[in-house]
Amino acid sequence: MEPVLAEKIVHGLKAAGIDFMTYLPESRLSQILPLLREDGTVQLVGTASEQEAITIAAGAALGGKRVACYMESTGPYVSAYSLLTVGKQMGVPILLLIGFLGSFADQRNSFLYVTIGMRMIPTLEGLGIEYRVVENAENLERHIRDAQRVSDSMRQPAALIFSGEFAR
Amino acid sequence: MIRRECLELMAPLMTDQLVLSSQSGQRIEWFHLAAQHEGNLLVGMMGCATGVGMGLALALPHRRVIVLESDGSVLLSLFNLPTLGNLDLSNLTVFVFDNEVYSGSTMSEPTATAGKADLEAIARASGIDNAVTVHDIEGFKEHGLPGVTGEGLHYVVCKVEESLIHREIPRPNVDLAEYKYRFIRYIERTEGITIPFVGLG
Description:
The complex is a heterodimer of chains A (about 170) and B (about 200). Chain A has about 170 residues and is of the alpha/beta class. Chain A contains 8 helices and 6 strands; from the N terminus they run αβαβαβααβααβαβ. Chain A has one domain (about 5-165): Rossmann fold. A 6-stranded parallel β-sheet of chain A has the order 2-1-3-4-6-5, sandwiched between helices. Chain A is globular and about 40 Å long. Chain B is of the alpha/beta class. Chain B has a 6-stranded parallel β-sheet with strand order 2-1-3-4-8-7, with helices on both faces. A two-stranded antiparallel ribbon of chain B has the order 5-6. In chain B, α1 (about 5-10) packs parallel to α2. The longest helix of chain B has 16 residues, at about 175-190. The interface of A and B includes residues 52, 62 and 64 of A.
């Protein structure tokens, strides 16, 4: 991902009022992490599992934070249980930022990623999680703010899936 | 020692603590004993309460957060322990009521702690220095109760006999949404804040 795209994601998160983010780093979007760490506006919490990332983010949301959770394509599988129980059943908004490894537009796709990537969106749909795929930086700030508003309004997680220019 | 004895000692100590319970047998006993405590939150299923507790403790670092866990629930999410050890949250206490069985419903099958697994040892190896195991009520008074009212990160594994009291107590008629909103309104009132996602429509 070009550095300018990482800067735009960080700018969009801050503009949407995100002040807490859990994550499990991956290989497409992780350039946002040093930028967020340097900026200091968003409290970052690294985790050992996406399931844990969802539960920690949910706790912070209940405590008054506006939260995001950053993961790669495998994240929805690993965190499906907590997305359903804490995210949807209890009803806690979490903005999911998902690096779309294994998609058609993934410029570094391989046999390692493609199976996981191809079934990721059906998995989100099966979980009943609303999502939008973002291919480029056009209107990125608005996309992030829109997804955050949808998540808050539904009191449920909602996902932005980063593909195209973000998956290089 | 049975779980209810420990919970009976904890309930009178409730002031402004935030108490989360996993979906295990203790939630029925706790919500029966401390039904009036507005800082109670039921976390719907096993394996999620410690994570939610960590997030809450990070968001509200001046509030004591207490998580009531079971061995079955903790074993479902052992990845929480290294994260908890590294975060070293000074306002979080986790009680694990370890009866060595899955007994929340109608069957009693052994968990891994009935075998060789030692939750205190796993917690210590994960960086949680203040992890202890208590085997009797005197040990719970000495090592467990400071986690209710004191400071620091506490991880208290309470070895308890299997008790079926929870099967006799009527289950609360409060659903997850009601618990959540009551909990959130309590936080808003006691913290003087508005939780962003439950703002005006």
